[in-house]
Design brief:
Elements (H helix, E strand, L loop, with lengths): L2 E5 L10 E9 L2 E4 L4 H6 L4 H7 L9 E5 L8 E9 L14 H14 L5 E5 L5 H14 L13 H5 L6 E5 L6 H25 L7 H15 L2 E5 L1 H7 L2 H7 L7 E7 L7 E12 L19 H16 L4 E11 L11 E3 L5 E3 L7 H13 L5 E6 L3 H7 L4 E5 L2 H14 L3 E3 L17 E2 L7 H10 L7 E6 L5 E2 L10 E2 L4 H12 L5
Parallel strand pairs: 1-7, 2-5, 2-6, 6-7, 10-11, 10-14, 13-17, 14-18, 15-16
Antiparallel strand pairs: 2-3, 4-5, 8-9, 9-11, 12-13, 15-18, 19-20
Length: 513
Amino acid sequence: MTALTLSTAAAPGLRADALVIGVAKGTKGPVVARGAEAVDNAYDGSLAGLLETLGASGAEGEVTKLPAPSGFKTPLVLAVGLGEEPGKGDEDDAEGYDAEALRRAAGVAARALNGAKKAAFALPLADAADVAAVGEGVLLGAYSFDAYKKNGKDAAAKDAKAPLGEAVLLGGKPRDKAYKAALERATAVSEELNRARDLINTPPNDLNPESFAAVAQAAAKEHGIKVQVLDEKALVKGGYGGILGVGAGSASGPRLVKLSYTSSKAKKHLALVGKGITYDSGGISLKPAGHNETMKCDMAGAAAVFAAVVAAARLGLEVNVTGWLALAENMPSGSATRPGDVLRMYSGKTVEVLNTDAEGRLVLADALWAASQEKPDAIVDVATLTGAMVLALGNRTFGVMANDDAFRTALHEAAEQVGEPAWPMPLPEHLRKGMESPTADIANMGERMGGGLVAGLFLREFVGEGITWAHLDIAGPAFNEGGPFGYTPKGGTGTAVRTLVRLAELTAAGDLG
């Protein structure tokens, strides 16, 4: 992973493969951002005009390369677009650029510098928060998944460039406690988010419930987190009918993993529940061709929960965080659950399975009830749950539902703070009637229209009485099938990790009541 350092060195004298500067989109053309003064001076103040001549406008995601001026020890200047220039009269923007703009620009630049050993980033840093944003952007943007290309047996592997080796953030204060803490936080969160991406990108023939549980056990041991793994025998003994029912058709048995991070100074307990379907064929309700090729990503919710718990431990947050990973592989076979079967869940409720491809809610239901038994202050579940949510919000925004409006708002705001697009969604009571079953307490399907909301209502049935709960449907942004953008790569994105970590921080600080 890319190494991050802070430096107050002058840009001309720093040895590196490239110097990254920012350029914004002004009303009359590109505007050179603060941090690039040395480069602008070396061009006699004509850098903005030179960049415009080269086609630069300052638009977000834009990259323009030019030779470094005479006297610089870096051969290349890389100008990255920051988007619109901050308004002069806006107090919020008077000191610098929006954190997300910095994060995205740093990510674009880091990806453009794949193959470089060292780069200096002279982006506008107004405070420690900006250092954190640029640091995250670099580490997340430089990410690549090459575990299956290391032998270099094909042309693509041989031509692949290694991620940027080192990033020096100029203008950062290496002896300032706030700056150092910001960089350490950015490193911890980004490393765990990238671990989640690795898990999401791992092929399902190598990542099954057992191997996922083993990864969680190893990380827990490394970071002082208590871990418990329930295998098939333990799940049968405990009556976890939902998880067992989903995993019944697979040769790889299901698991329920409990990760417990505790702080001696904690006053609150946060429970996180993740859907971990390591491959989703749809089961007997088989997905059609064209809808199953990326279903290795159906464990992205569990990956996010896992990463968030480890990040909380690494940051030493003063809050108890318990993560529940509901792991199963949904496959068709002679032993698979059939449409029409009735499962008795861990809560004791019975569920008529009308569609075996609505399996995520079944494993989550058992995990939610298990989490409820510890009476946490709040529960948040995360899942790539419904295609309906993708239709509603698109590929970059996740939905937030809750049984408490204030908590839903707090989660939405936490997501906005860290740059993860999210949108609050309702839980309309009239949709509950569609899940009534003549055979069981509830069916796992309801009305087709509003399917994402129906799934949220189903999950609510398995949350303990009086417990604040929220549901994040990350089906859209969890896996990027298009090209990379900002600090987001193609493939697994690690969405929701930063929102969960921010929620844990707010809970530790007592800012959620």
